[in-house]
Fold:
Amino acid sequence: MNISNLIRIAFKALQRNKLRAFLTMLGIIIGVAAVIAMVAIGQGSKQSIHDQLSSMGSNMITVLPSSNLNGGVRIAGSSFQTLTDKDIVALKREAQYITEISPSLTAKGQAINGALNWPTSMQGVSPDYLDIRMLTLKDGIAFTQQDVLTSAKVCLIGQTVIDNLFPNGENPIGKVIRFNKIPFQVIGILNPKGQNAFGQDQDDILIAPYTTVQKRILATIYYQNIYASATNEAVTDAATTEMTSILRASHRLRDNEDNDFTVRTQAELINTLSSTSGLLTVLLTVIAGISLVIGGIGIMNIMYVSVTERTREIGLRMAIGARGKDIMLQFLMEAILISITGGIIGVILGIVSSNVVTLTLSWPTIVSESSVVLSFIVCAVTGIFFGYYPAQKASRLDPIEALRYE
Amino acid sequence: MSKTILEIRELKREFQMGSETVRALKGISFTVQAGEFVTIMGSSGSGKTTLLNILGCLDKPSIGDYLLDGVDIKKLSRDELAQLRNHKIGFVFQAYNLLPRTSALENVELPLLYNKDISVSERRERAIHALEAVKLADRFDHTPSQLSGGQQQRVAIARALVNEPVMILADEATGNLDSRTSYEIMSLMQDLNGQQGKTIVFVTHEPDIASFSSRTIQLRDGKIQKDTENKEPRSAKEVLANLPVTDDY
Structure:
């Protein structure tokens, strides 16, 4: 018997009992739809956590001066001055995994506009810094490399500072404010970022070229931090390793000497959160998978009933020339048709319900191709696995007894 | 000289029922030539059903030979027997055994689905032809529940004809039908035998039905009691014509 006859026979047999075929399918439909919707919700939440972290610069790498031995006493890193322009030059020249790099140093002080003043801090950075931290301007322009070279007295202003220095809503762009008695022209307004994870107001800041802060305010040649961004999140580890070796070389550290700096990434935080939502996805998938297995058992159950109920039909088919194999394939094909049709409907239902969840609850969902393909394969396998035993039972019937079955 | 369709030699069939051995057939020999219309008669327990199962290649003899159209079935496997049934035997059952909720045409096509040499168009053509042969040309799309008992049995006969078998094997084919319909079926059988030369083996326990055949084999206790040639079989058509018209209702 060829395959088209086989499908035809199985299809006709199912057609004779549409309602039962549908009810059997229902288990599979719900199982598959559940798998797809659950995975979509899990993936969606994972992605949204990820996106939120990325907005803080998930590929950001920070270099800090590190504690070091000084006559046997470990000294706090922050009081050390190890990072210099030489390091920036070396990193820019040699590092392959980083795209942007910026030194950073922060000065505390009083910002003054006319009669108003506000205690804040000024961060000196290079123009790359805005990209590294994903900062954007609400108005005005950013300073340029030219401003860095000339130690220009220009700054970008954060919302909190604006609120305190320009309370009447005038536009600060072009205005001159003073910071630690040095006049700065405001050239851009930062988009508010709100508090960071530790409750620190990220908008209470002035950003200026690092050379300006270095020379005109702090009078130092050292940097407090170096910020860099890796080409993408996946290579942050490689970038970390690379930066470490470049900085060691730049600092002329011998092999037996500890690093006098620390390189940190956001990756750990991301990994933790991703693995939490990954766990969520696994849990949801397991639950959905269980419902798929139950659907499969439903198929097996119905196929057994069907074999018993259709004993005479099986006897007749055998009498008129069906081999055991033909009967087996017919019932197997019926089970597979049920599970695959159920699978297709389930996939559609799963995608639709994912979208409904997104629309009504505004939960982010991502229908991954792999979950669709996987649940479809699981369906076919379920059909074969749970259809096999009933089909085998049918194929082993004795035609004489089957024909006389009442 | 006509061809031998069926040859049985010293056929025995025994069943093991617990510790007891039941000897259902105790040595039977006969041959059936092409074009014969044979009825096999016997009361229950005569071994009629066992013989039918063996003739239908659903069962194998314990001892003895059975050659169907020259093929010794003893040597065949389960699958080969299925193929033999598909090619050489047309079954007609007492309970029709049609697939429910399936059109007459599809029911008739069924045996051909298990024959991979037959194309879709040929299958359809032969099924239509077979239904026409049993005078059901206007009932192709009817499902069994929309057909009377006699019509259902005629669909079953069409199904038995569609694979062009060497022998039609009928098992109490009129058992579920009233006399008028029974005669109609017998008339059809006689037509198939007389006009188309089909070989028919008809198992029944009704002597009335047996009188329409050209030969009757009487079984008793697993042996052939009588094997008689029926020189002048009754014509079912005439009997049908002479039946009083019942207009009681």
